[in-house]
Queue: 2 jobs
Job 1
Amino acid sequence: MNHKKRLKVVVIGGGSSYTPELVEGLIKRRHELPIKDLYLVDIESGREKLEIVGALAKRMVEKAGADIRIHLTMDRAEAIRDADFVTTQLRVGQLEARGRDERIPLKYNRIGQETTGAGGFAKALRTIPVILDICKEMEQLAPDAYLLNFTNPAGIVTEAALKYSKIRTIGLCNLPIGIKMQIGEFYGVEASRVDIEMIGINHLNWTTRILIDGVDVSESFLDKAAGAKGLTMKNISDLEWDGQFLQSLGALPCSYHRYFYMKDAMLAEQLEDLETQGTRADVVKQVEAELFELYKDPNLAIKPPQLEQRGGAYYSEVAVNLMTSIYNNKKDIQTVNVRNNGIIPFLPDEVSVEVNSIIDADGAHPIQLGKQVGPEIRGLLQLVKAYEELTVEAAVHGDLKAALQALTIHPLVGDAEIAQSILNDILEQNREYLPQFQS
Amino acid sequence: MNHKKRLKVVVIGGGSSYTPELVEGLIKRRHELPIKDLYLVDIESGREKLEIVGALAKRMVEKAGADIRIHLTMDRAEAIRDADFVTTQLRVGQLEARGRDERIPLKYNRIGQETTGAGGFAKALRTIPVILDICKEMEQLAPDAYLLNFTNPAGIVTEAALKYSKIRTIGLCNLPIGIKMQIGEFYGVEASRVDIEMIGINHLNWTTRILIDGVDVSESFLDKAAGAKGLTMKNISDLEWDGQFLQSLGALPCSYHRYFYMKDAMLAEQLEDLETQGTRADVVKQVEAELFELYKDPNLAIKPPQLEQRGGAYYSEVAVNLMTSIYNNKKDIQTVNVRNNGIIPFLPDEVSVEVNSIIDADGAHPIQLGKQVGPEIRGLLQLVKAYEELTVEAAVHGDLKAALQALTIHPLVGDAEIAQSILNDILEQNREYLPQFQS
Amino acid sequence: MNHKKRLKVVVIGGGSSYTPELVEGLIKRRHELPIKDLYLVDIESGREKLEIVGALAKRMVEKAGADIRIHLTMDRAEAIRDADFVTTQLRVGQLEARGRDERIPLKYNRIGQETTGAGGFAKALRTIPVILDICKEMEQLAPDAYLLNFTNPAGIVTEAALKYSKIRTIGLCNLPIGIKMQIGEFYGVEASRVDIEMIGINHLNWTTRILIDGVDVSESFLDKAAGAKGLTMKNISDLEWDGQFLQSLGALPCSYHRYFYMKDAMLAEQLEDLETQGTRADVVKQVEAELFELYKDPNLAIKPPQLEQRGGAYYSEVAVNLMTSIYNNKKDIQTVNVRNNGIIPFLPDEVSVEVNSIIDADGAHPIQLGKQVGPEIRGLLQLVKAYEELTVEAAVHGDLKAALQALTIHPLVGDAEIAQSILNDILEQNREYLPQFQS
Amino acid sequence: MNHKKRLKVVVIGGGSSYTPELVEGLIKRRHELPIKDLYLVDIESGREKLEIVGALAKRMVEKAGADIRIHLTMDRAEAIRDADFVTTQLRVGQLEARGRDERIPLKYNRIGQETTGAGGFAKALRTIPVILDICKEMEQLAPDAYLLNFTNPAGIVTEAALKYSKIRTIGLCNLPIGIKMQIGEFYGVEASRVDIEMIGINHLNWTTRILIDGVDVSESFLDKAAGAKGLTMKNISDLEWDGQFLQSLGALPCSYHRYFYMKDAMLAEQLEDLETQGTRADVVKQVEAELFELYKDPNLAIKPPQLEQRGGAYYSEVAVNLMTSIYNNKKDIQTVNVRNNGIIPFLPDEVSVEVNSIIDADGAHPIQLGKQVGPEIRGLLQLVKAYEELTVEAAVHGDLKAALQALTIHPLVGDAEIAQSILNDILEQNREYLPQFQS
């Protein structure tokens, strides 16, 4: 990437409530990352939100005196043409679809979650065709651009793009940086002094090494982490990790691991929540409505602090860090989703993994893992990755066999009959978003 | 192995109700497999059964006019000295322990099964120390003998012997030959005309190819197998396989797969059975009592036909086939448990797998798989093998961390808190059989 | 393969002087391998030889009273239509081309050999396009037939067919059976009592295990083999192996290994022979001329004993063994060239290797190696296989870059400038046989 | 590594003529790398040189006003105690031994070179026992220190330390940085703007990617590099690379590749030089003598410019860069020799490779290769690595079998009989330095 030129950045799903966070980050770092044009793209049904968010973005830019032109458009191809970075934060089917994703599994006594299990599977089926369409447009109109994919399930969606397109795609998530931040807080040191090594895939990622100023504190950390509050994401129940369990695992699980390691308790909680407050989608819908009310205020010209409740902490930082390091050939280390290619030796080469990588003008280059893991991590990771591979095949080819097997083997389903019932419900309730299965 | 000499064969757990089946097989094939001395070994608490079974064995040999000397002994070392083949069919803790293995998981709403899940895990913990003791004695007293391990969980126990002893160990199970027989019946042809290729591990083994007279009929078979009765073991509920599921899997699962693919229905059935008839151990106890009553009859000098109800069909055939092929350097194909060494490329080299192998005087040599499998089989196999590796470590070293992780990741447990509770119960209820955890 | 039907067998290069050997074998084994039609195919310029050999073949069949119809034809496609087995023993460019292959490298002080080094490389360039043409015809006219490739360099030619055609191809060579025979003679036992395990590729194959009646005698063999005469092929100088060298290698090299391990002495011998008697091609030309004189004799109706001097001992046995085992679903062990697929773990999956395999109606299935080898074998094997992979690419695509690199890295060339000179000469002198390089 | 403390650095072979270069570097970078004590260690026979060099070092430090204490000692253990970094630049047997290493192979018409081929092999046999002794002392006296090994053959020596000691060892060479510098000059840009990716092992390293300011210019570079002078090391003949050859290789070979790719020409040159000027050792001996004369000058207090003729350009920079990045947890990229562990997927895990790595307080962490290589590079690399593995075994265990096989398969020997003769000469002429072979 020629680091002299000023950039064209495209945000697909630009009408998202997260956009002000991203805009704030772009403004802050504009001297390192000189954006000329920022395209916020959305679809017709999202026009209203796009206009609200877009107006706020323009006010933010103006107030900051930043020389960034904001463009609002429904013409995705036009936006993509000659872009340098395309980021995706779209949500096919909106929160209504998410609500269905969360409810269907619960009907069969299975965890209902947006990004993993049967819920994440449904989201992948809806999302992958759209992402591959974007890739195709990029191949035509911006073949050298980077696709920075934030759209969940980010690991699966990124894997689909890596397997079925030549566009340089990097999958992003705020979870790794979040863990680093939390560990910094935990030790009372700045995050910049913390290094962590993760092994795994998006939302199923074990932190195997923790270093403060380059000194390995992993072992003592596990003692301390047992029972500690705070080591989780905003949107996931903050159940404590049992000390003996952490010791036996020898690594810090991520917050989404609760669905796997505390399956019974998490399911019980979800079923109870369903009765009392509805699904997480219902909660988020409320939060979003309130945010958009705020965004409409013509006097608002900064990111409103309430956005931080929404769950996307560090989202902007992750996106801007990555673009900045690519643009400036920085060669710093970030944890991103890339093609495995042997870095996790017990997973296939062509799948996506989430690991520490050097970021330079040429993209993301994974770093060899410093710590090997045992069967306790290997086995679960292999199974969930197998589920992901099947999900990619199901989503790309409309392959019902792969779909049924994907759900059957997922640890949060784990039964062929239940898998078939859930699959039937998903196909039925998402008909309009699943063209690949219509034939 | 010098095929001129007459053989010394040792049966550890010789007081088992299965022994008459083995003796019958040895008598039938004595011209190919000239046994001079057959040692039936048991422990003091099994003396009565050993004497009953041993007396029957002597009557059988005499009636057949076979020149085989039967020895009954509690002195295991003496039996092992200079042996050619040592077979193990022991059951540490007898059926009482099995009953506990089946009940503990059910208490936590988990499948309670003798060889897989938490039940099989408990059995492995009890059994592996005894098998490794036998290996040590063999290293001293019969270093060139083969250990033919039938003791369940046969894959895990064999893996422990392969990893922690230099004795040439081959793990055996009657399931593969049973599938071949069933397919023969299914097609109305003799089993000798049927060839099958399996991928997997003991009791988790997918039949990926079926050939009749060398012609591949795999695809048409899957159509026909859907809903067919009879494709299961005597001791496993005969739930039908769904046709769409079989097609999506692209292989014939083994009967134990019902615990994985039909988990909910199997659990419901087990919980109902528990109320009405007790565990499978309770049923077997009754059958065994009846068998021993029969065995006592001084006029009985053949294997009584009632033994075939017991569930160990082909057990004798499997054992005798293997010994015969080794002794005669036959180079025929049998499906046995051996060190993987790359045959299943996505499993570690040093684990046990159950695959087609050439049997010759030098042992068992796996044959390259002719059909590759996809993530649907790979993922589940990798996870369960990871569980098995952890179980071996737990059993050999009394490693509580490995034990907790083994149970946590097993698909039939799948929750760390439940795993801890089950583990506590297992350790508590098996105290006398788990010396490796007393320290 | 339906073992009831009578077979159609096609011999491409049917006018070869070896054909009577094959015909003799087919007559002998006709009760196991019921051939109805035997097609001997050749090209126009070989018509005379074909007619001489064909007439002899007909007399042989008649004399034996065998019900085999011999067909002589220049219409390859017609011969291939509906065939069951197609064997190739063709020689593109005849012995004249071989003579050039042997002379060119000698000009640059490099070993000149028919099947390895620069000579084998030239032969591969000429042969592979013809073999792939045959494959294409088979895909159209006999898609289920087996291609049994004898044409040298057999490993490289087979690899090309395996990579670039879906026809089931097995590469054959008489070297493995020859080693088995020699070891039998060496020990004074019948070859049927000898088992050997090889690791390697065609004409670069180490015998790592030797068993007599299933008993491993490998170690004592190496002591005895040092300095022994007779462990070589007819066409290769019978230099003795040094005892210390054999011990340090821990395996028996094949006769072609002399070009690698005794490079200086072999080159000196070749250069001397060149002055005194010409190349090996010149010698063979003389032998062939004499053979064809014999074949013309209308009273000759058996394979003349002089053919055995020609160097192709066991050639017929190898071909007939393979066809018989496929036809009868025999499941016996033969050493053939097949796709690696992990059997030699340090070579790529998709290359050809020469290893023990089970032969059944479904083809050849490699058996896991019982002995691992060290860097001394691994390194040389990897390098020569890399050369072979490059040669396949050069031959299939007319790729000059691959061609130059192939020759450069071959241990019998090992210099880029020399490689370029040799390559220029090869392209120049084989212009009419290398259509893939004309563009 | 605690980056607050001041450091103790040990230079084994401190009497080397290179030492002033290192001292200069340490002085320049002292604000980043605060050394308190610098130990120059040598053996008794090197006392005079050590005292000359040490006196110069002290004058240099004093003149620069640097707060570094220089210690001269023959007590290696005392020097090592509590060290932070130990660097090795020793030469067992001095230049006399090097001269013999260069002459022996030439006697048999083989390349005689200090670090590769039979010469490098001899040097490895002498050096590895000394390095492993140093490792043992470090395990006792400075177990957390880093061993930075410069001693040639650096890849083999480092591999021995990685395999047979737990000391954290990193192998260093000035060749990678030299290539980067040359490419910078070639393009007329500062080296800091150049990134290169190498695949290979020490002194057999292909530059597969070249980026200027993060932009990949690899393809155009190869066009331009053909025939260019300057892309070599001081001590290696500057023969030009042929353009077609470079294109066919698709990578820039390193200067030592001339021994492999231009074997005939290089050998001819060596044989001619031997007649006219002696071996390279003879030349170096003269240069060294002159340098030490300069060093003696009590008025000299800087590194004399004549040292740059010696061939060790950037040596100091490489050493100081590495220490600085470890001390400051810098996470920058350097090309060093480390355990492979899958980074070069076709080499064993446990061997040393020379690849781009992140350097931080925890050591060197290889980065995934961005470009895969074909058989042309793979095959040669695998063979030479196999030679290196055998050499390590020979050197550590005094294993004559491994020694003979190592030399036999090395492309610069390639004949068993010659290998045996060379080996005999090496053992004979190095008797006093090869205790591992005396038994």
Job 2
Amino acid sequence: MRSLPFTAVTINDRFWAPRQQTNSEVTIPHELAQCQTTGRIDNFAKAAGLMSGEFEGIFFNDSDVHKWVEAASYTLQTHPNPEWESDLDAVIAKIAASQQPDGYLNTYFTLVAPTKRWQNLGIMHELYCAGHLFEAAVAHYQATGKSKLLDVACRFADLIDSIFGPDKQDGLPGHEGIELALVKLAGVTGEARYSALAEYFVTRRGHSPSVFEKELENPDIPGGLDAYRHHFTRDGNFEGHYAQAHLPIQKQTECVGHAVRAMYLYSAAADIAYQTGDTAIINALEALWRNVTEKRLYVTGGVGPSGHNEGFTNDYELPNVSAYAETCASIGLIFWAQRMFLLKGASRFVDVLETALYNGALSGISLDGTGFFYQNPLASHGGRHRDEWFGCACCPPNIARLLASIGQYAYAESDEGVWVNLYIGGTADATVAGDVSVKVTQETDYPWSGDVKITVDPETPVTFGLNLRIPARCDAFEVRVNGAVHTSETNANGYLSIQRQWHVKDTVHLTLAMPIERVYAHPLVKENLGRYALRRGPLVYCFEDVDNPDGVFQTLSLVEGAPLETAFDSEILGGVTLIRGTGTVLDAADWGHNLYLHSKPDLKRTDVTAIPYYAWCNRGAGQMAVWVL
Amino acid sequence: MRSLPFTAVTINDRFWAPRQQTNSEVTIPHELAQCQTTGRIDNFAKAAGLMSGEFEGIFFNDSDVHKWVEAASYTLQTHPNPEWESDLDAVIAKIAASQQPDGYLNTYFTLVAPTKRWQNLGIMHELYCAGHLFEAAVAHYQATGKSKLLDVACRFADLIDSIFGPDKQDGLPGHEGIELALVKLAGVTGEARYSALAEYFVTRRGHSPSVFEKELENPDIPGGLDAYRHHFTRDGNFEGHYAQAHLPIQKQTECVGHAVRAMYLYSAAADIAYQTGDTAIINALEALWRNVTEKRLYVTGGVGPSGHNEGFTNDYELPNVSAYAETCASIGLIFWAQRMFLLKGASRFVDVLETALYNGALSGISLDGTGFFYQNPLASHGGRHRDEWFGCACCPPNIARLLASIGQYAYAESDEGVWVNLYIGGTADATVAGDVSVKVTQETDYPWSGDVKITVDPETPVTFGLNLRIPARCDAFEVRVNGAVHTSETNANGYLSIQRQWHVKDTVHLTLAMPIERVYAHPLVKENLGRYALRRGPLVYCFEDVDNPDGVFQTLSLVEGAPLETAFDSEILGGVTLIRGTGTVLDAADWGHNLYLHSKPDLKRTDVTAIPYYAWCNRGAGQMAVWVL
């Protein structure tokens, strides 16, 4: 089974198409301007000798430009534009020019510490930045067919491969990312050395003595030992958890440390297992998946609750106001979930992918495309606002590359079938039964509606299974094939599989029930005790004080049993389905001067309105809550 | 109006008498042993030249010994014991011997930094330790009539008075305490200079430039500038809030900074206002009182939620698990409340005193008298345990001196009347109408019962008002005088005043309703939303997992409307009235492997049992909650 690449999918719907258009027309230019004004682009020109001056910004700023190149490349393919293409080519030219004669490419080390390459793999992110260069190169090649950046990437990958490996220098990235990038690079080049190096990085990790332990002994380490010790020691002893270097991947059962790093590692491990069938890795990934989805996942698809380590803490520790839930971490979860689906074929992975996509990741960007969240809390007492950029700007280009490439998460294919994983209006070009082309067209107003019309157009009549993902949350659905009711038995993988010979213009009507659901958290999630969240389809809802101005916002409660209704409002937040109902709120005035009362205070009836979580903080930095009483 | 001193009150009941006995027989000897083994007593011997060796422990450890002397003195008066008296005399002899020829007394500075006296008033606690010496001396003199320690105190007070004051050196204690001690010293000696010095310390505080700002400019300050800056600067600029030195007392309206310091300052300010009638100070104290009782007070009478500054934060910020609520701070609140009562004559101050006494202060000591809490959280996830002592051991001798002297909070007198503020079985010797002695005898099982029999025995028939405090929380009560129902109209000060000519063996029967109350917190107290606490009489209740083992403890909920019942159980926790009822709990097993469910989970019915908060953590370090769903 393989994903359909973003190049084989078009999107033409009311939900994602406008977001992709904004991404193309607003976000990508906005982020290029940010990269320009913050010196990120100039760093490449300086390293290339094209301009004078010192390195500017944080030592891993190259990666933001690489991610922007990746995002812009996807966008050029979906939204061609000659002017932007020349902007992109200009940036790529500077990146390429900064490559050193031996293939090395990293503007910080080239400009600041040229003699100290590869001496601080734990902190200084040379391999991480290389990974993002590789991903950009692959995307640019796939989107445009141009090989300029791909050649740059391969020369650098060859250099890295010549240095690190089983019989060479011991090395590992402190921040994972290069592993999955090398797999992608191997995919487009056919170069097995790249996937072998990825496998080395994935499987060498967590063995002792670690390269990180050795680097801790270097008093002259670039970047200094203090930061290194902060992340890699506890009580003076080496501790690898922060970078998932505490155990070999095959032994890992708990998601630990920096969440983005964890997601990127698990994604690469799934890539490796997909190629090798290594059951020890597959079993470890299942255990890690169970750990995160059963004990460490926000209802929004956010992961990594703590700002302290930008990552994981303990089972069921999911605070709302202080939730870190980095945008990049939800994006990384999408990467991992997609690979777990390819590995195991089960819909439960795509269910989580969908949750993260529509909520914890999408919340990371404003509706106008120029405001970003690094953290995605599930409640705010007010004062949280979106920024147009960050000093550490990993998230803005990450969400841009995700939005530009979501088509690749919608479908999968194999010789035996086509999988429809995301319900998004548009088309997909699949190939089944060896070489039979099939166009699949979706017409749907999902996620506002659960009705999906799928038209199957094979170039010639062909027998295969059309596999429709039925979300586990969905208690009721109906399927009609060419108007006739079809069985609604899902298979063990969670799909409704329609096995038949398909002819041109065959239609499938899928109707997923989209009730408003009250969601209850496990009782060990302390902050959500006595509370619930609202969900409809893939969308988690939240309440903002701007819609719910009565009384003390924190006391907002939905009346038990009172009906909740949906209403699509095209006028607000770019058009959303609101959830409305009757609730109660407490009024501080009823307390007078009392801090405590011993008679039950009156609840004030009030109309309540919830909006999709992804759309919060687009109307000022007010109070917000996902979990209400 | 004046309090009846502890020497005029005996206690003979089922609640406090055993605690005083344990205090006398167990806690006082235990704490002496701790002071001995930790070098606290030896420090005095070393400073006196009676033994060799270096200063041991923290620089303000003298104050723990002084507080122990105060506690032991009270106890000797209530529980005479020749052996302990000689122990006390031996300690006092060492303290006295450590006094320097000029009257100075502080073992840290005498042993470690004799040339650096009074150079770090902000941090090094010389004046604070002096204050506790003065309080000890006053208590010892009152309890035993011996003047040895009082003479020592006066010589030191004279030295301090010769150094600091309006026309002398500018000085203030960083940690308040000496102010109220000087007022006490003036009270027993009649020396007006001492109360004048107290007034200087109270009213000089908060004026600019502050002595603390000047000390910040001394690079050679004993103790070092770092600690000083930590407490007294923000962003590099002087900030006096930590020690209530941000504004003159007359301008203060919000309780800020270190809670114990605040309580001691406000207590002294009330003492000064009592003497001078200064309306600006009285108005400020009223504002501060309203601030703490309306916005910053735990339902247990704890104050100061934050461990960061050991003190106050923001209005309505009253976290439960992380509540600092230092034992000493609740004790300080009792001191302040008592003085506010004397200043204003209103029962509302004593209501708060009673709450702090029976809950937030009393929780600071174990039932066996040898285990202490420094912090008094309102919830625990387990693992909190009592210690037999602390490195910074302010709380253990503080609770010991409180327990030994609670008689002084029970009654007040004036020419016109007697006030019964606390319902405690025992006797009080008051004087009314100039010189008529009246013995008041209480028989009661309070706080387990609301029935109080009061016998009034004047030496000769005399007309005065017997003023019974009716707690504001009490919605129903009945009073009978010699069997006849009396009006139950309380006066503006919250007292039921029985004005009549009293004869020997006149009896008053007061019956206070003692229902189980559900208490609701103000809606801006975020942690208590949707929760309530149980209270009965002055006692706040809590739940411990040892009594409530079913399901997930955190989900414990009382069934709305289900009856709650009381049951006295003499077998557990020294004999307590339990509250029992029917509740619900969630069972983690019902969640299976799910982190989120979208059908409402079944609640499991369970019997629930609550115990008085003061008695928690006497059966292991389990989970506890005051506020339940």
